[in-house]
Amino acid sequence: MKGTLSFFEHLQLPVGFLDIDVALWNDNPEYHHGLNTVRNLRFVNDMAERAVSLIEDYNAILTKKETQKQYLLQIVKQRR
Predict the structure, then answer these.
(1) How far apart are CA 80 and CA 77, in angstroms?
(2) pLDDT in tens, the chain (80 residues)
(3) Whole-structure pTM over 0.85, yes or no?
(4) CA atoms in the 13 A half-sphere facing the CB of 63
(5) Which residue ranges make up each domain of the chain?
(6) Is the separation of the CB atoms in 13 and 33 below 8 Å?
(7) CA pair distance 20, 27, nearest whole angstrom
(8) Three-state SS for 17?
(9) Where are the alpha helices (DSSP H) in the chain?
């Protein structure tokens, strides 16, 4: 529950609805406020974006010719 509360605190969301029966959440304005906030969050996969950027930078350093780049990527794929 500590992680959940940290999530709500970080987003400055009300937590009062957590103390009532789940069946009553749909009628609770705090719940709807939190739900709308979370639904509108944009998530980013930083690790994937960094990996793609690193590959693109490394690829640009190795060669400027597209055929060589494709050949290099095929070799890397085969080695996995």
Answers:
(1) 5
(2) 567 788 889 889 999 999 999 999 999 999 999 999 999 888 777 888 888 888 788 777 877 788 887 887 788 788 87
(3) no
(4) 9
(5) 2-39, 46-79
(6) yes
(7) 11
(8) helix
(9) 2-10, 29-39, 46-62, 66-79
> What is the distance between the alpha carbons of residues 53 and 20, in angstroms, rounded to a whole number?
46
Residue 39: closest CA among 11, 78, 66: 11
Where do we find the tokens 């940290």? 6
Contact between 28 and 20 under an 8 Å Cβ cutoff? The reply is: yes
Q: How far is CA 7 from the centre of its chain?
A: 14
Residues 6+ apart with CB under 8 A from 16: 28, 30
Structure-token pair, residue 26: 């749909």
